[in-house]
Design a protein that fits this description.
This protein is of the alpha+beta class and 340 residues long. Helices cover 58% and strands 7% of the residues. It folds into two domains: 71 residues, 3-Layer(aba) Sandwich (Glutaredoxin); 200 residues, no CATH class.
């Protein structure tokens, strides 16, 4: 791999195009104008395993050789490494918390939409097999290619119940997808990004999952028909290195569309997180609740328990003056009961 064009060692992002968290981190690096190499051939999980990291992608190699994965800690690590350089964290602490909340909503709830559409519908399963295997090796021998496609399909379809992508949950997941599309479509017609004319961490959290949904056949067709402005927004956000922009005024009321997204988070993701936490604490084998008036059930997830704890701790750590501005928003959107 030639790195000679860089004055100093660049970042190296080990991921691949069908991975929502990989394209999320790639878009963040592009927006922040941080020199990096996109290493997208082979199996990036092997790099994580060799480094004794959890087997999740992408993996970011820092210029000093450190390896790290998990997109949210990675985004904050880049904030630490490059403070004040095209930050994706809103300057206002209340807005920064709301951005973190919506990023988590994207990473952990909208990902259910991505996984559902990719592995539920036959056309999407067929396309995903091709996209994923050719991303690893575009000239794989035919027999190996067919075996790899089938093995990956079987593995992912076998995980659908575990992550909540079941026939029972399908109406909730698909209705939530349509709500996100409709609301975000109205928003980006008036405001370029969620918190102003520059992208935040929340934008990139939604981007990662929605970018995949904009490629897989079934959700892509619905997005283009229902929310063409969202589709175009994703194209812009994929490389926002030319975007300057400003944050919205923290003294002004939040845009109605942003409030609607937060309210939807308070009606879907946060009740699920709270139920998941209870199930983990009680040792239950099932998370069961009603979401949007429909039954929803899945196995509890320890990682999402950590996400819930992180959101609650971060809220509790905010100073009083920030809470006095933030809590009414969380109350209005039905979020605070799951976070305080």
């Amino acid at each position: 791999m030639q790195l000679m064009l860089f004055r100093t060692a660049p970042y190296i992002l080990h991921g691949f195009n069908p991975s929502p968290y990989s394209v999320k981190m790639r878009a963040i690096l592009r927006h922040r104008r941080l020199p990096f190499v996109w290493d997208a051939i082979g199996n990036p999980r092997d790099i994580a395993v060799a480094a004794n990291l959890p087997p999740v992608i992408p993996i970011l190699r820092f210029p000093d050789g450190r390896l790290m994965n998990d997109s949210t800690p990675l985004a904050y690590a880049l904030e630490h490494e490059h403070p004040g350089e095209r930050s994706i964290i809103p300057d206002d602490s209340a807005h920064a918390y709301l951005s973190d909340l919506l990023e988590d909503f994207g990473d952990e709830w909208v990902t259910k939409m991505m996984f559902h559409y990719r592995w539920y519908y036959a056309a999407d399963r067929a396309f995903a097999q091709t996209w994923i295997i050719t991303s690893r090796n575009p000239v794989m021998a035919e027999a190996e290619r067919r075996a790899g496609m089938q093995a990956f399909n079987d593995r992912q379809v076998g995980r659908m119940t575990l992550v909540g992508c079941t026939e029972q949950n399908r109406p909730v997941i698909e209705e939530s997808y349509r709500f996100v599309l409709d609301t975000l479509d109205r928003h980006v017609r008036k405001i370029p990004f969620l918190f102003g004319s520059r992208p935040s961490l929340a934008d990139f959290g939604l981007f990662g999952q929605l970018q995949i949904l904009s490629v897989d056949p079934t959700p892509m067709a619905e997005m283009r028909e229902r929310a063409a402005d969202v589709y175009c927004w994703l194209l812009r956000l994929d490389d926002a290195s030319g975007v300057e922009g400003a944050w919205i005024d923290p003294k002004a009321p939040l845009p109605g569309t942003l409030t609607a997204l937060l309210r939807h988070c308070g009606e879907t993701y946060l009740p699920f997180l709270a139920a998941n936490t209870r199930a983990l604490q009680e040792g239950s084998e099932e998370v069961a609740l009603d979401i949007m008036g429909r039954p929803y059930a899945q196995a509890p997830f320890r990682y999402q328990g950590k996400c819930h704890d992180a959101l609650r701790r971060k809220l509790a750590a905010l100073p009083g003056d920030v809470r006095r501005r933030l809590d009414p928003v969380l109350e209005q959107t039905g979020c605070i009961r799951y976070l305080a």
